[in-house]
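Hello support,

Our group uses your service weekly, and this is the first time we've seen a run hang past the timeout. The protein is Adenylate kinase isoenzyme 6 homolog. I'm not sure whether the cause is the sequence or the server load. Input pasted verbatim:
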Amino acid sequence: MVRTRPNILVTGTPGTGKTTTSSALAEATQLRHINVGDLVKAKNLHDGWDDELDCYVINEDLVCDELEDTMEEGGNIVDYHGCDFFPERWFDLVVVLQTDNTVLYDRLTRRGYSNSKLSNNIECEIFQTLLEEAKESYPQDIVIPLKSDSIQDISTNLTTLTDWVRRWQPSST
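Update from on-call engineer: The timeout came from a worker crash unrelated to the input. Re-ran successfully.
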């Protein structure tokens, strides 16, 4: 089955603007926004709570099973801070949002992140963990890093991504 609408993964360290960007892009393109964190909570696609990291322990197999049919249909923007467990065939574009560490620190502090969770996420951004994960998991030509420090960056990214969706053509492979 050839998809008639693209699937986009928007990933990055928590606090880089994934949900804001994904929501705005869904509105602009009429694609479906899937916030994986919300899906995990709503459908109990986890293996319990991690007190140290203050989050659910996602069950990647359950998430992929839940999304399989929807992703095959196409027309989705998947919003999640990880990317290496999703099947490569699902995505036509993988966007890695990146934020300056001082901006990210302020955003995560405002969210009330604990010191260990804050440090963990700042280190993740410093070492570009999500960009490397995306590059290792998907073809290089579909992975694009985008700066996401400000409202202006989000606006520019939205224009770039909306234009990409409008130009997208299904692959014949």
